[in-house]
Amino acid sequence: MNTYKLTLLALLAALAVVGRFAFAFLPNVQPVTSLIIVCGLLLGPIAAILLAILTTFLSNMILGMGIWTIWQVVAWALIGLLSGFLGKYPAKIPGFILVFFAVISGYLYGFIISLTTYSVTGKFLPYYLAGLPFDTYHAIGNGVFMILLYPVIAHFFRNYAEKHFYLQNTN
Predict the structure, then answer these.
(1) pLDDT value of position 166
(2) Of 142, 132, 77, 76, which is closest to residue 106 (Cα–Cα)?
(3) Residues 15, 128: Cα–Cα separation, whole Å
(4) How far is the C-alpha of 83 from the C-alpha of 43, rounded, in Å?
């Protein structure tokens, strides 16, 4: 992990925390999952896991900590890990695949968060079924945020990486 990656990770964490706080008025619509996916695709699985941990703890300092914080870290870290492996794919991944992955990640996140209730009460299915509409909001939000954020962030990351790589090789 070099200064370049740490800087990008800090920028993504700040964007995710502010985005999560800014969209708190909409249930389960937040850019965090999409940003973690973008991070995994562009910076790798370790960076995505670090972003998941940073974002969860920093944003929950504002929005509230609880037992769900652990499960949020687990859910977002798993999504980051999967997106990091997806980013290692040698060919360019089509946009519709990335949007589909973001939508599926919304449901995966909801499934993992539903395990929180199971760990506390021993009941899973009622909580999971009651949360499906909110998981759908999350999934749709992920798709929209992926469409909006991925092209912009990927463009800036590539430009920054080219400049960084050029400067590093000239020294």
Answers:
(1) 47
(2) 142
(3) 29
(4) 10
